[in-house]
Hints:
It catalyses: L-leucine + 2-oxoglutarate = 4-methyl-2-oxopentanoate + L-glutamate; L-valine + 2-oxoglutarate = 3-methyl-2-oxobutanoate + L-glutamate; L-isoleucine + 2-oxoglutarate = (S)-3-methyl-2-oxopentanoate + L-glutamate. The protein is of the alpha+beta class. It has seven helices and 16 strands. It has two domains: about 120 residues, D-amino Acid Aminotransferase, Chain A, domain 1 (2-Layer Sandwich); about 150 residues, D-amino Acid Aminotransferase, subunit A, domain 2 (D-amino Acid Aminotransferase, Chain A, domain 2, Alpha-Beta Barrel). The strands form two sheets. Strands 7, 8, 9, 10, 11, 12, 13, 14 and 15 form a nine-stranded mixed beta sheet that branches. It has a seven-stranded antiparallel beta sheet with strand order 2-1-6-5-3-4-16. The longest helix is centred in the N-terminal third of the chain and has 15 residues.
Amino acid sequence: MEEAAYIWMDGELVPWGAAKVHVLSHALHYGTAVLEGTRAFETPDGPAVFRLDEHLERLRLSARIIGLPLPYTLDELRAATLETVAANGQPSCYIRHLAHRGYGEMGIAARDCPTVVSIASWSWGALLGTGVRLMTSSWRRNDHTAVPTAAKATGPYLNSVLAKAEALDAGYDEAVLLNAAGFVSECTGANLFVVRDGELATPPRSAGALDGITQDTVERLAADLGLQVVRRDLLRTDLYAADEVFLCGTAAGIVPVSSVDRRELGGRGPVTGKLADAYDTAVHGRDPRYRHWLTPVTT
């Protein structure tokens, strides 16, 4: 990760190395934080943040779900995001929004701890390479009756950390997690699509999958390409029997899966290719139909 010049923290830009939190911050001990991952892309009119308003709205909803007060309006966070990217002079970058319970008092119910909000941006390539080797993790996805899977919160991400480590240790690139009922949920940091007989299918929120913004983007692009797409429960064997499987997420983009549990799929297929090309065109501002998804960064 390449460090940038500034990080926005509670209303001001501070040098990257000075963006610090107290060791007794509540979120560090109990996972009381919500986050967003967003990207800015190069476009013919300069850098622009892709679907920024949707990401900030999800941040707001995540904070509401876990009972975390958010001390800034969405308009303020929008302006702060653009200010951060502009100050760092980045033509393209990954953006991390974080709101966490800070230092104030210890104990699980420490609701008097202030909410600290930060926005960082840095140059970061695609999270995964082309042709992901996927394995089914022995860890099950968090159950929505135990933790709120609809919130993009930091605490539940330990589930992803464990599954990712298991996959890497076993010689794979990424893990797919099943839920408690045995249905496919999602990967450690990306949603998943299966292509079979021309239909695209992706797990629903009821499977424990995060309602992904890139997932929604893929569904909209697919509709415009005349492709049928549904959200439905998927079995592990549906991955094996698929014509194509691909992952999608802000950090990953659209990435073809080359194998699942050592069952070869062949990598990027025609449907994945069409969607990946359409996505690349949209995020870089080359298709006027999707310009409303781009928020320009003005210097």
